[in-house]
């Protein structure tokens, strides 16, 4: 009985022991699950934290340092707009050559052979006769043209040599004749009123020459505008690059504040709301950084498009300006800039050439209202021999000279068209003078605005630089107050935003100042001289 009780008690104790061991195993398994979850969460937090602390970046390709002079030279050689405009002077050169072709002489050669056989018949005495047989050959050469002196003098160098053979049968007796006539000489025609010094051909030549000059200045204007775009895009590229650095700094400051805030929230020194504010600011700064990187990437492409005619060759390169944005004080004089603009701007020079073309048109139209009075003169030598050799000898001996002198007068009755053309040409000149005056005024206004823009831009550089310095000191002070427990994360965030804005405004002011200097050179017409560049028209 006692042994049975002991056996039962042992069994109960063993069962209880196994239950305890089972519960311990379950607890251990539960702890493993919890530890695994905690570890997974910890790794996730570390991954997120590592990802959050790493600034986002866009792959912009291999770094390619470039200076402003190098960029300008590349544009001068490969910019597509400049290459397209280079064809305009070439076309104008062909126009000048075509108009001057009026002075090219023309050569004319004529040759002919004639044969004639008459019918037989009866003469006045009633005698029968056979038919007459005749043949002739004729050759002539002419060289005609206008003398390129502008006086309207025309010339004609002529020569003619022939053969005439004739055989007649009178009462069955043949009668043959043979001769070698010839003529050589020159004739001249000189207008004295209408067509003297100016005619349609001469006016076309003079107008086409000025059109060529206009096309050359159009090319110069295109080159200057393209180079100014390159220069200004280059400064904008530096600005976008520096803005990326500003946004990266802002992002790092926001991440640093977020980390510090989280630590204080864990310790209970700060509220969860402060952590949420820091997270919001970090996310906002990340977005701003990505936007700055996108603008930088697009500006790189903008510069590339201005520098090359093969965009694909620069696709994987990140153009990195060597220069930094600086504000070198510039001395500006309104009167000097006006003088440059009104004498060097291609637009004003082209307008002057247009007025010269109007003067040529008026001169020609006025000439066309005059009567036509032409002086004519010619001199030559005649021969008529039996052989060609005798003809050439007689030409040399001047045995039979001939000459003529005379004139032709033509008076148009009414001449309405010529008088109306003259009035229209004068109206066009009056309109051209107003266009010229308007352009002068436009240039003066543009230059005045550009100089004021330079002055205000330089002042903004100084003020924005001071504002950035103050904002930096303010942020430092707020950070110290927060560390001492006297400030708030909100005030630090506000100071960070203020510093980022002030830094942005400073680099923008620097870029605007340099762009304003470039724009003034363009408006003065001194872009090429300012950058030490020259262009040649082929």
Q: What's the short version?
A:
The chain is α+β, with helices and mostly antiparallel strands. It has helices at residues 2-53, 68-78, 80-85, 87-100, 200-267, 272-307, 334-344, 346-367, 388-397, 416-483, 489-524, 527-530, and strands spanning 62-66, 106-117, 121-122, 128-129, 133-146, 154-170, 173-191, 317-321, 372-385, 401-410.
Notable features of this structure?
10 strands; Outer membrane efflux proteins (OEP); 538 residues; single chain; two-stranded parallel sheet; disordered N terminus; 2 domains; six-stranded antiparallel sheet; alpha+beta
- What strand line-up does the widest sheet have? 2-5-6-7-9-10
Oligomer: single chain
CA-to-CA gap between the ends? Answer: 132 Å
Residue share in helices?
Answer: 55-70%
How many structural domains does the protein architecture include? Answer: 2
How do the SSEs run, as a string of H and E?
Answer: HEHHHEEEEEEHHEHHEHEHHH
Main sheet, how many strands, which sense, barrel? 6 strands, antiparallel
CATH architecture of the largest domain: Up-down Bundle
Rough outline: elongated
**Structural class of the helices, strands and pairings?**
alpha+beta
| Total of DSSP H or I helical runs spanning 4+ residues | 12
Rounded to the nearest angstrom, the radius of gyration is: 49 Å
**Whole-number mean pLDDT:** 85
CATH superfamily (homologous) name of the largest domain: Outer membrane efflux proteins (OEP)
Report the β-strand fraction as a percent range.
15-25%
Unreliable residue stretches:
1-18, 27-52
Q: What's the level 1 CATH class of the largest domain?
A: Mainly Alpha
What is the β-strand count? 10
CATH topology title of the largest domain: Outer membrane efflux proteins (OEP)
């Amino acid at each position: 009985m006692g042994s049975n009780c002991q056996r039962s008690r042992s069994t109960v104790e063993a069962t209880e022991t196994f239950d305890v061991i089972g519960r311990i195993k379950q607890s251990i398994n539960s702890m493993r699950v919890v530890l695994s979850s905690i570890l997974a969460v910890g790794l996730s937090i570390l991954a997120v934290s590592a990802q959050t602390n790493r600034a986002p970046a866009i792959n912009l390709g291999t770094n390619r340092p470039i200076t402003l002079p190098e960029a300008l030279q590349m544009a001068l050689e490969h910019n597509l707009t400049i290459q397209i405009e280079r064809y305009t002077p070439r076309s104008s050169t062909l126009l000048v050559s075509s108009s001057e072709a009026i002075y090219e002489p023309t050569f004319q050669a004529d040759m002919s052979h004639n044969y004639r056989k008459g019918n037989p018949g009866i003469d006045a005495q009633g005698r029968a006769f056979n038919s007459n047989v005749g043949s002739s050959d004729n050759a002539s050469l002419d060289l005609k043209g206008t003398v390129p002196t502008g006086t309207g003098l025309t010339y004609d160098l002529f020569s003619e040599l022939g053969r005439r053979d004739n055989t007649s049968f009178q009462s069955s007796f043949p009668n043959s004749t043979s001769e070698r006539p010839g003529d050589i000489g020159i004739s001249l025609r000189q207008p004295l009123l209408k067509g003297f010094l100016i005619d349609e051909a001469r006016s076309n030549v003079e107008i086409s020459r000025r059109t060529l000059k206009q096309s050359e200045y159009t090319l110069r204007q295109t080159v200057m505008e393209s180079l100014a775009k390159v220069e200004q895009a280059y400064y904008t590229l530096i600005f976008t690059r520096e803005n990326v650095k500003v946004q990266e700094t802002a992002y790092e400051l926001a991440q640093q504040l977020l980390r510090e805030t989280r630590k204080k929230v864990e310790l209970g020194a700060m509220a969860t709301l402060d952590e949420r504010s820091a997270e919001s600011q970090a996310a906002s700064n990340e977005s701003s950084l990505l936007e700055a990187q996108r603008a930088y990437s697009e500006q790189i492409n903008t510069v590339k498009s201005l520098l090359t005619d093969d965009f694909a060759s620069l696709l994987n390169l990140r153009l990195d300006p060597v220069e930094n944005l600086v504000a070198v004080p510039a001395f500006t004089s309104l009167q000097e800039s006006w003088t440059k603009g009104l004498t060097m701007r291609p637009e004003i020079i082209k307008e002057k050439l247009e007025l010269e073309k109007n003067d040529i048109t008026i001169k020609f139209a006025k000439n066309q209202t005059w009567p036509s009075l032409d002086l004519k003169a010619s001199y030559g030598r005649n021969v008529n021999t039996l052989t060609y050799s005798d003809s050439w000898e007689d030409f040399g001996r001047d045995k039979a000279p001939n000459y003529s002198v005379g004139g032709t007068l033509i008076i148009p009755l009414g001449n309405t068209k010529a008088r109306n053309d003259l009035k229209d040409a004068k109206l066009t000149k009056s309109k051209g003078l107003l266009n010229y005056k308007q352009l002068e005024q436009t240039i003066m206004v543009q230059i005045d605005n550009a100089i004021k823009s330079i002055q205000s831009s330089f002042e903004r550089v100084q003020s924005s630089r001071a504002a950035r310095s103050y904002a930096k000191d303010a942020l430092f002070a707020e950070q110290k107050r927060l560390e001492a427990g006297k400030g708030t994360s909100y005030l630090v965030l506000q100071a960070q935003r203020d510093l980022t804005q002030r830094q942005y405004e400073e680099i923008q002011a620097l870029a605007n100042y340099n762009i304003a200097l470039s724009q003034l050179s363009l408006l003065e017409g001194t872009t090429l001289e300012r950058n030490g560049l020259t262009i040649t028209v082929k």
